[in-house]
């Protein structure tokens, strides 16, 4: 499967994805089976946990959020990819915005803090990825004006329930070496008068550090790169690199416009990548 749709960032020619050797295939099987087992156990456990949550906490996610976080941390550990987090998750109601570089973001960002991704509706049909998005309670958005009001209401309801919805304002993924301009239109939903007045947006920067000897863009998944080929290359890498996550200070929404909010969030995310 390839990632190809209008608005996709392609940049320069993508680096050659290394093919697994004998040791690589052994790592693919052992790591892949271990990660798949953890994900399956996580899915089995999350169903009764969520049922209990609904009875005791309503729409809030005080248990399954940390549960997904733990599952993602274990998966990264099994993969051999070290994850370092700087900064603290915000405590006030709000959302998170971040740069987007790889399918690994699903694991990395959930490992950094309990979040719920906001994604285009087409992702719900991508094999493999769709399982992860469903389990992590992804908020799907369809590009249909007839559904705009209903989607806005769902966003408000989930925010009031304490869900940390995570947006990718670049609108596409990159090679992880840059931050593309943030789209101000994606920040319009934060200005809804029905949302809490104390609402804030927390910028998050994710920086991938390639394994020694590999192309700096090794972990980037973008353009027309095939998911399966890239996934195999990452699992087959004997000595992994690492990933750093920077949680910036939250930006209060009060008094901002969608353009000023987008500009401040972009500047914060960009500063984390260049630090």
Quick tags:
275 residues, single chain, 39% helix, eight-stranded mixed beta sheet, disordered N terminus, alpha/beta
Overview of the molecule:
The chain is α/β, with parallel strands linked by helices and 275 residues long. It is built from 7 helices and 8 strands; from the N terminus they run ααββαβαβαββαββα. It has helices at 22-57, 64-79, 105-112, 129-135, 148-160, 227-236, 258-274; strands spanning 82-86, 94-98, 116-120, 139-141, 165-167, 200-209, 242-247, 251-252. Strand 3 (116-120), helix 4 (129-135) and strand 4 (139-141) form a beta-alpha-beta unit. Helix 1 crosses helix 6 and helix 2 crosses helix 3. The two termini are 34 Å apart.
Biggest sheet descriptor = 8 strands, mixed
Strand content: 5-15%
Structural class call reads: alpha/beta
Give the termini distance in whole angstroms. Answer: 34 Å
Helix amount, in percent? 25-40%
Compute the gyration radius: what is it? Answer: 18 Å
Order of helices and strands: HHEEHEHEHEEHEEH
Q: How many domains make up the coordinates?
A: 1
Poorly predicted runs: 1-6
**How many strands appear in the DSSP assignment?**
8
Enumerate how many helices there are, as a single number. 7
């Amino acid at each position: 499967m390839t990632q190809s749709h209008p608005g996709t960032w392609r940049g320069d020619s993508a680096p050659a994805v290394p093919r697994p050797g004998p040791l690589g295939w052994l790592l693919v099987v052992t790591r892949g089976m271990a990660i798949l087992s953890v994900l399956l156990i996580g899915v089995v456990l999350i169903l009764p946990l969520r049922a209990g949550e609904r009875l005791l906490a309503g729409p809030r996610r005080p248990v399954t959020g940390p549960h997904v976080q733990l599952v993602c941390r274990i998966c990264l550990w099994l993969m051999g990819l070290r994850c370092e987090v700087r900064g603290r998750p915000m405590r006030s109601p709000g959302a998170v915005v971040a740069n987007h570089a790889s399918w690994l973001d699903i694991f990395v960002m959930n490992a950094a803090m309990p979040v719920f991704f906001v994604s285009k509706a087409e992702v719900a049909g991508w094999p493999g990825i769709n399982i992860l998005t469903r389990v992590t309670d992804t908020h799907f958005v369809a590009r249909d004006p007839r559904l705009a009001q209903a989607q806005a209401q769902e966003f408000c309801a989930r925010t009031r329930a304490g869900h940390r919805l995570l947006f990718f304002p670049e609108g596409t993924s990159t090679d992880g070496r840059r931050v593309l301009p943030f789209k101000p239109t994606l920040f319009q939903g934060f200005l809804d008068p029905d949302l809490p007045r104390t609402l804030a947006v927390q910028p998050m920067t994710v920086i991938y550090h390639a394994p020694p000897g590999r192309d700096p863009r090794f972990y980037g998944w973008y353009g027309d790169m095939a998911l399966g080929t890239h996934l195999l290359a990452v699992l087959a890498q004997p000595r992994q690199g690492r990933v750093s996550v920077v949680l910036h200070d939250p930006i209060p929404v009060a008094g901002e416009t969608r353009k000023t909010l987008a500009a401040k969030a972009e500047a914060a995310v960009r500063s984390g990548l260049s630090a």
